[in-house]
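Rotation project, supervised by the postdoc (A.L.). Task for the rotation student: set up a whole-complex structure prediction and record inputs and outputs verbatim in this book. Inputs entered:
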Amino acid sequence: MQDDDQTPEYRFDTLAIRSGVERTPFGEHTEPIFLTSSFVHDSAAHAAAKFAGEADGYIYSRFGNPTLRTFERRLAALEGADECRATASGMSAIMAVLVSLTRTGDHVVCAQGVFGTTQQLFALFERYDIETSYVPLSDPEAWAAAIRPNTRMLFVETPSNPSTEVADLRALSEIARRHGIPLVVDNCFCTPALQRPLALGADIVVHSATKYLDGQGRVLGGAVLGGNQYMNEKLQPVLRYCGPALSAFNAWMLAKGLETLSIRMQRHSENALAVARWLQAQPSVEKVRYPWLESHPQHALARAQQDAGGAVLAFEMAGADDAERRANAWRVVDGCRLLSITANLGDVKSTITHPASTTHGRMSPEARATAGIGEGMLRVAVGLEDPADICADLARGLG
Ligand SMILES: Cc1ncc(COP(=O)(O)O)c(C=O)c1O
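Outputs recorded:
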């Protein structure tokens, strides 16, 4: 195979299109899909050498596959990571990291308000006596105070979902380094097109590739990225023995999705800012949360660590009490004809959801209140339609 691997001096947009390609002797221009569960060996001795790790070559798609390798090497180039491993979903990526870093009796510190299923996953691991403490995302002092002698991982998602709170990744990595604990960042909302956590000091990045890496709502996928030692010694055995492998077809979709990541994220961000500014001017809207708005509490920090604001914004409908705020929010959802009423995000199609009754509905009301998720809050993942049409659609239910 001819290997068109990335040359370090290539810039982001070139790496997104050209890195990770392994051309076969057929000379195909587009990356091929290797839909095969296993790979053949030249002889018994060759098989033995590959199994013993003494010869290179693919064995079985649970451990490695050339199409997955294309996606992994391309994403590693974009995140600036030594290594990347693809997984079947974002949740399996987070689970693999948790399993790789902890054992019975260990402790995790996590940002309040991370994706609801991530919190459910951490709760599931309480059965193995692995406890999680939740801390305010934007308060580094609280992170430092929550660390115990048995803490094995700091986990953060920034900007947060749905409140778009921004964590100071440099400050958190400094705390992590001081205590010798890895900082794990879920970079789902920004993607490496807008934010590169490893360059800001983080140790491990996880992705729900289902979202903006694919970008068109087609396939599930996930990824873990980090340094060689962690990836080869700690993560790879978990993936090999637990088997949350990505399908080659999905890996191909994701590798092709990366080719347009940068222009998509720029346009998502421009559209989201236009919609956020318009929402700010609507009398029935109490508050708009979007990191690129000057009114956002961590606007300066977002500008320092992100290249643009991303696709996701949240806004709050006014109301005399919780019941009225919920009714007003639901009226906006029900008035939409263009925006899709779905909890997913990361699509060219704009989506709208009421977090308190959907994605974050399983949290206790107290936990929701702490994470700033009220009954009047709506989350919009702004797509690539014309922003004027998105605003007109929202206007119908605003009152
Ligand atoms: C921030 C974040 N992380 C992880 C996940 C889980 O990803 P997946 O659905 O691919 O398992 C999601 C899904 O919505 C998410 O929004």
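Student's summary: The first strand starts at residue 2 and ends at 4.
Supervisor addendum: DSSP finds 15 helices and 14 strands in the chain.
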